[in-house]
Amino acid sequence: MSENILQLRNIGKTFFGVNVLRDVNLDIRKGEVHALLGENGAGKSTLIKIISGYQPPDKGGEIEVNGQKVHFRSPRDAKNAGIHTIYQELSLCLDMSIAENIVIDKQEEYPGFMLRQREFNKRATEVLQRLGLDIDPSIKVRQLSIAQQQVVEIAKAISANAKIILMDEPTSSISQKDAERLLEIVRNLRDEGVTILYISHRLHEISEIADRVTVLRDGNMVGTVNASEVTTQDLINMMVGREMTNVYPKRQVELGDVVLKVEDLSSDVFEHVSFEVRSGEIVGIGGLVGAKRTELMEALFGLRKITGGKIYVKGKEYNPNSPRSAIKHGIAFVTEDRKKTGLVLCLPVYENVNMVNADTMHKFGVLNWKDLQNVARSHRDKLNIRLANLGQTASTLSGGNQQKVALAKWLDFEPEIILFDEPTRGIDIGAKTEIYSIMGDLAAQGVAVVMVSSELPELISVTDQIVVMCEGKMTGIVPHSEATQERIMTLAAASLK
Amino acid sequence: MESNKKDIQPLELESRMSFGQLMIRLRTVLILIALAIIFTILKPKFMNPRNLMNMIKRMSYVAITAFGITFVMTLGGLDLSGGSIAALTGVGLAYMLSKGVSLAIALPVVLVLALIMGLINAVIVVEGKIAPFLTTLATMNIYRGIALTLTAGRTVTIKAKGFTDFFGNGKVFGQVPIPILITVFFLVVCWFLYSKTKLGFYCRCIGGNEEAAKVAGINIRAVKYITYIFNALLAGFAGLILCSLMNAGVPDIGSDLSMDGISAAVLGGTAISGGVGSIIGTLGGALIMAILNAGLSLLGAQSHVQILVKGLVIIFAVLMDNALKSKTRVQKIK
Description:
The complex is a heterodimer of chains A (497) and B (334).
Chain A: E1 4-15, E2 18-29, E3 33-37, H1 44-51, E4 62-65, E5 68-70, H2 75-80, E6 83-86, H3 98-103, H4 117-130, H5 146-159, E7 164-168, H6 176-191, E8 195-199, H7 203-209, E9 212-217, E10 220-226, H8 232-240, E11 258-267, E12 273-278, E13 282-286, H9 293-300, E14 306-313, E15 316-317, H10 323-328, E16 331-334, H11 338-342, H12 349-353, E17 362-363, E18 366-367, H13 369-383, H14 399-411, E19 417-421, H15 429-444, E20 448-452, H16 456-462, E21 465-470, E22 473-479, H17 485-492
Helix pairs in contact in A: 4-5, 8-17, 13-14
Chain B: H1 2-7, H2 19-42, H3 49-74, H4 82-98, H5 103-126, H6 132-150, E1 156-157, H7 161-169, E2 171-172, E3 176-177, H8 178-196, H9 198-208, H10 210-215, H11 220-246, E4 248-249, H12 257-267, H13 279-298, H14 303-327
Antiparallel strand pairs in B: 1-4, 2-3
Helix pairs in contact in B: 2-13, 2-14, 3-8, 3-9, 3-11, 3-12, 3-13, 4-5, 4-6, 4-11, 5-6, 5-11, 7-11, 8-9, 9-11, 12-13, 13-14
């Protein structure tokens, strides 16, 4: 029982000079459920990618399966070694049948030109029954619920003789009842001798099914503990016990009137959120992945339909129905994914900066590009955007500079409310400090700032108060003076316990 | 980080362009010059101004259609129906004239008809959320079908000599054919709209990243409507030139007009995926195709060979485009 099936030695990973994983040493015992726990950005996903063969570790890192050293060059290698991974975004072919999906990894067992549907179906039925899913294997995967699709993924792994199954946040997008069934399946698999590496931030699940827990924080391994010997509070402390260094000190700003008031706001994915933001105030929105914070921002900006509650901008009721109306009400939105929603990568920097401006800075539709370039030039200087020339395309900039360009486009129409969604994700520490300083300047000018962030130290040090959400519900508001990492993490996991 | 700041001088716009980037900028011109030189060496007669004028005149309607398509493609859309719009515009005009409607009424009516065809394309793309390729593939057949049905497949002669002489065969200053003047007129209008106004800018934003354009508050629907309608209007004008050149409304004319327009735009550097393009480039693309056609026929090549060469040139241009782009990636600046 205590024999190690998978051993990781000195695993590290560096992306573009950023060290996302350092010196991870992990022993997975045969037939255990081993939970991997950590905040967003702790390095869990990177570790999974290394174990499943998507990315090689940095030099010096070693992986041993059953005491044999292995070098995975592709996910195929990992699968051949018996390691199967079930990702959050399932990787099934939706328009193929369940059976076809299950056998797709084992095509070498079915040589010849013709498809042997009958054999496929037989094999699928067997393995599905083993997992307690009584369903016709010839129906299309598209017709299944997410929970059922997950079971098909597991069936696919079992059918291919998986020794180790990695599950990345398997319960994040399914209902409570389905989650319990899934945990039941996981327990049964363990009893059959399959080793499970289970990634989740739902603490109650971990105490329910895990034998041992490894906690990651900021790319470092905090430690491995026996699940039966720790409380959820111990785990929270392990996850957040981080020193607050290199963080921008909060600037003291005189707060003005309430600019943005959110009252009992609900949409399809979150409900009953209420908070206020004053002029000059920075309000943080904290929570774990799946807390629906981005969705809250989208609702405020008219990108998501509101199903209940009210929003007031400067005392007047505001009904956001499109980004255009949000902008008219003086709201700006610096989105989380710069590349997807923030920038037009193939356009030059100065055009990106003027994307919002162009709506007002024109004469009968004619743009004066000289003026607009001057606008871009002044933002470049104010925000210290580093580039060779304003005509270079946004795609050629580093993350931090891209973020500043994405921000610059909002500054010229002088918004009264700015929503930031993970403004410092994926940028280096120097650029982070600059972003904090810009936010401080904006607040000092009387702008009401809302910032969604997954980084607790940044959330605590930059904001005046923090609204904490958990799975679409608001679980508390913490003022700056009372904010600690433990307090926020406890609220962020509140309804999960 | 500090040292970085000092390294990078705040340079002015477009001040630094490598040789490779310059080549990308000028690639259409380079191909044009190369082709002109080759044909002149092979057939000195090629450079005869008369020959050149003729060559450009025959390309005028393709260029006008291509200008419209440049907007649509930049937006991330596509239009296959331009040739059918041109045909129906010409046939509509010929039909009305043959029924005794005066030119002063028939001309505005067919241009409004072209606008309506663009509007229909836009409604289906925007409201029906059907891919532009499929939408215009369908309307291409629908508009062509209407043109054929209207005349029972027959050609309708236009007897309004004044009109056909002016639009098709007229000349100013004794030398410059009217179709070329019309092309130059639309060249200026389209260049201005594309480079200097919100319309062109928003087309580039939407084609480059529709999500980001939406978040930036750009009225995507309005831009799409205007673009598809404007594109159809240009195709309508191309149709007027075509029917004047033929002295008749021909229902099955211009079947490869849209494809030639798309080819010209692509040759001129407009990305099929949207976000990037230029009107001047498209003009260059149309000229390349004109030179090829004229040169090859001077050399005695049959039209079948010309079509083959047209295909090869497109592949060549796009391959060269990709190769140059990957060689001249701007260094990342931290």
